[in-house]
Amino acid sequence: MIPSRAGRRPDRTALAVVALAAAALVVRLVGLGDRPLHWDEARVGYWSLRSLETGFLSYRPVAGGPLVYHLSRPSLALFGATDFALRLPFALFGAALPLAALLFRDRLADDETLGFAVVLAANPILVYYGRFARGDVLAVGFALVAFGFALRLADGAGRRNAYGLAAAVALAVASSGLGVVALCCLGVAGLLVFDHAALLPSARPAAMRLGEYAARLRGAATPAARALLVFVAVYVFAFAPRAGDTDGAGLYTPGTILGAIDAALFDSVRRFVGVRVVNRYPEGTHEYLPYLGDLLGTLALAALPVVLVGAAVFLADRYTAGGPRSEVSAAVYWAGASLVFVPMLTEVSAPWLGVYVVVPLALPAGVGLAALVRWGRRAFDSRDVPRVAAAVVVLLALVAQTGAVASSEVYAPSDRDAELAQFAQPSGEFSSFRDNLSAWVGPTDDDAPEVLYYGSSMYVADGAADYPPVPDAWGERLPMAWYVERLGADSTSAATPGALEARSSIPPVVIAPADERGTVAPLLDGYVAHQYDTGLWGRSVVVFVKN
Predict the structure, then answer these.
(1) Which of 10, 87, 252, 528 has its CA 20 to 30 A from that of 325?
(2) CA 486, CA 246: separation in Å to the nearest integer?
(3) What whole-number distance in Å separates Cα of residue 441 and Cα of residue 543?
(4) What is the dihedral of CA 118, 120, 123, 126, to 10 degrees?
(5) For the ranges 6-20, 178-192, 471-485, which has the lowest average pLDDT?
């Protein structure tokens, strides 16, 4: 174990990690608002704007973790209803993720800490989804922070780390439903490490420390109770409803605070179990191997160096004379458990699932990166040209693979060839809809609706989409619903040609499925049609604009 650095002033390693976080922020802010919103991002933006308007917020598992709304609402309020503002808090967290490496400094050498931070800052999948308005990077990031605080607590670095651990666990759960899966996978890794410490002959000293940990626990009742209070406080703040302009219970509404706390502690669990376990979509199950194959494909594309270096470090560390390092083993076990359980328990196969494997693997990959640089430096000092060349070639290969994926996936326009973009990401052409909608809609200061959604697949009764859960047809409006809502435009629906003809006036913008174009066009004299794909392929819509 590396000697403790507790109480030291920030040194060059800490400053280097902070500089990496600053560079990671720049990388994540470049073009942050360029790409049109994914359906999931649009859903977050829409409900955040609705919550800002009404003050109402209630945890609904189908709408994601509550933390994403606590982050997006103030950003939209401060910076306006833009794609950039919606993604900004998630980009800030993604950029701050390398700072979590500092929690592991008592276990890692300085160059290993720096290597760990480099992987967290630069891996393409963490860059792509670290600037994406979903809770996945938040969930696995807080799980990583919990891992760091747990190690520090086990090493006796101070009981205050228990409070950090408790808060991180609560925030991971509040970030996403998969945050629970990430924490469970981390728990599996911890159990495996302790089991090996007790059974492997080479790990007997670690087994002897189990008694030391038990002795600490006997005198830790008060700090444990305080940590539990920290967890409950953070959890209640995240999950408690806000009544707003409704007559329900709200955390800030006098007389209903106890009801809000009850809803946070108990209703949130019932809702989560009801949606994610009892009534799981789709129909409670899915094929496992295709989901696993998709995840492996994502890792091969965007994290192959991390996987290969992490696996090599795990094997070398495990079979060296000094025995396995528990932090390396735990990180690899965590990644392995995530590889097994995340595709099993997720409801949608998507590239963002890769973050649940890459984040824990970043630790052994960082150790391996530091070892490679160390090896090359020794070769340079000894003038061993072949070894220097080998080290340079390997490092260049790692950098080239990362740079190639970043340039072709992270910043390139979304199209059918984009591997890191999920199906519900509109193609680059959809930017025309976003950029022109304000001019098409015109003034929005009267009571008449400015946008009409046509067709049974998009029909939602007025008022039925004010709060989640909403009818399935509302999902067919994504991501348009966000762009309409951020303009302050009112919308309405018509399911049939007769309903459209019966209207006294037709709004200046009519949106319909592309296969309804022939039905709607004859009813809209003087309108110009524009067609867009709201996904990477398929699900085309036609937008009729009054000329």
Answers:
(1) 10
(2) 22
(3) 12
(4) -160
(5) 6-20
Which pLDDT value is given to residue 403?
A: 81
Angle formed at CA 325 by CA 322 and CA 330, multiple of 5 degrees: 155
For residue 141 the two structure tokens come to: 């990031």
- Percent of the chain topping pLDDT 70: 93
pLDDT for residue 406? 80
Taking only Cα atoms into account, the Rg of the chain, rounded to an integer number of angstroms, comes to: 26
CA–CA separation, 145 and 359 (whole Å): 11
User: Are 66 and 59 spatial neighbours (Cβ–Cβ below 8 Å)?
Assistant: yes
Query: Whole-angstrom Cα distance, residue 424 to residue 281?
Result: 17
How far apart, in Å, are the Cα atoms of 209 and each of 153, 206, 246? 13, 5, 55
Backbone angles phi, psi at 32, to 5 degrees: -60, -35
- Residue 132 near residue 90, CB atoms below 8 Å: yes
Q: Nearest to residue 264, comparing CAs of 468, 58, 470?
A: 58
User: Concatenated DSSP letters for 526-544?
Assistant: TEEEEEEESSSSS-EEEEE
The Cα–Cα gap between 313 and 119 comes to 14
Give yes or no for residue 2 having a pLDDT over 60. no
pLDDT of residue 377: 82
Coil vs helix vs strand at 351:
helix
Pairing of strands 540-546, 509-513: antiparallel
How far apart CA 353 and CA 339 sit, in angstroms, is 9
Angle (CA) 432 434 436, round 5°: 65
Position 10 scores a pLDDT of 59
Count the residues in the chain: 547
Tokens (6 digits) for 174: 């509040």
Beta-ladder partners of 454: 494
Contacts for 455 with CB less than 8 Å, ≥ 6 apart: 495, 512, 513, 516
Q: What is the dihedral of CA 283, 289, 294, 299, to 10 degrees?
A: 130
Question: How is residue 459 annotated by DSSP?
Answer: -
| pTM, full prediction | 0.92
In this structure, how many other beta carbons lie within 10 angstroms of the beta carbon of residue 118?
23
Mean pLDDT value of segment 291-300: 95
Nearest to 414 by CA among 402, 398, 425: 425
13 neighbors 80 (Cβ within 8 angstroms): no
pLDDT band at 297 (very low <50, low <70, confident <90, very high): very high
Q: Apex CA 375: angle with CA 369 and CA 380, to 5°?
A: 125
